[in-house]
Design brief:
Amino acid/polyamine transporter I, globular
Length: about 400
Amino acid sequence: MARAQAIETRALRNSEVVDCQVGEIRTDRRFELPELCQIFLGRVTSICYLLALLFYLFLSQWMASPIIGTAVATNMPINSGVFRQCNEKDFGPHLHPTDGCWNTYALSVLLFSVVIIPLSCLELKELAVIQVIMALFRFIMLLVMSIYSIVSVAEEDDSSDTSSDDDVFTKFNIQGLLAAVPVFVFAQMLQSSIPSLTQPISNKRRLVVFYSAVFLVTTILYSMVGVTVAMYKKNNILEVCSANWKSLTSPEHGAAVRALSYFIVLFPAIDIWSAYPLTVIIMANMVENMYNNDPMQTPSRATRVVHRFFWATMPIVASVFITNLVILDKYDGLIAYFIVFWFPALLQYKSRKVCEELCLSTDTPYSSWYSGNKVVLVVFLFGIVVTLATFVGFVLPGSLS
C-alpha cells in the first residue's frame, strides 16, 4: 500500500521524481487489494483476484448462517406443527436438514437475518463497541475450552479411555490431513481485511507489530484449542469444535457445567454478530473501489447501504439450501491458497520491481526480512506445492468423508 501510494503521489504531481523514500500509509486514502493488483499486476490479474476474493468471502458468509441456524435450532425447544427441535444427526453429512428440522432451521436463519442485515449496513466505526466486546468474549471462550479439556484429561480415569494413545496415532490418515490443510489456511485469513482495518488506525508506525501480534495470538489459540479438545474427546470428537460440549447441557449435569457448556455451544453463533458485518463491509468496499473512477471520492451513504444490503442478504439465502459446513470450509480454504500465498507473493515481487523502474525506494516503513525476495519466492513455491497436494487429497477416493 505504501508503494502504491508513492506511485499515485508521483502521478498526481506529474513529476519525474518524488521523494526517494516511500512514506507511511495515509489515513485519507484506502487501497483495496484488487486495486493494488491493478496497479502492479494489471487489469486482468486484478479482476481474477477480485473474483477469487469475492467467492472466498461469499462462502465465508455462507457458512455463518448455518452456524447460527444449527446452534439455535438444536437448542430451541419447539415441537409443534411443522416445527421440531433439531439434533446433531440432522446436520450430519447431508446438504441440509430434512422434515420439521429444516423448518426450525429456516426460522432460525430468518431471525438471524432480521438483526444482522441492518448491522451490516453500518459503518466500521459505528460497530467498534460490538467488535471490542465480541473480541474479549472470543478469547474467553477459547481459553475456557482449552482449560476445560486439559482438566478433563487430567482427571479422567485411564480405565475409561476407549482408545490408547498408540491406537489414536495408528489411525492417523495423511490423506485426511491433505483435505484439512485448507481449513487451517482459512482460519488464518486476514489479508483481505487489512486495508479496511488499517485505515482507522492513527499510528501507522505500529502496523507491523500490530499484525504480527494478531497472527501470533491466533496461531497459538487455534493450535491450543485443536490439540486440547482432540486430547479430551479423542475418537468421539465432532467436526464443529463447540458442538462437543452439547452433551454437557443436559439436566443431569450441574448448573455451572451446563451454563459453561451453553456458553461454548452458543458463542460461535453469537460471535457471528461481530464477524459477519466486517466481511460485508470488506466485500462492498472492494467492489465500490474497483468501479470508482475517483479513488479519493467516497461513495454516498445510500450507495454504500445498497451494496452492503446485497452482500449481506445473498449468503443468507444460499445457506437455507446448503448447510454442510465441512464441504464449504474445505473448498473455501482451497480458494484461500491463491489469496494467501499466490497473489501476495506476486504483489510483493512486482511492486518492488515497479518501484525500481520508477527510481523509487523499494523499502517502506513496514519492510523487514520477511518481505525480501527470497522469502517471497519460498511463499510462492510453498503455495504451489500445498495447492497441488490438497487438490490430490480432494480427488482421491474417500478424502472428503
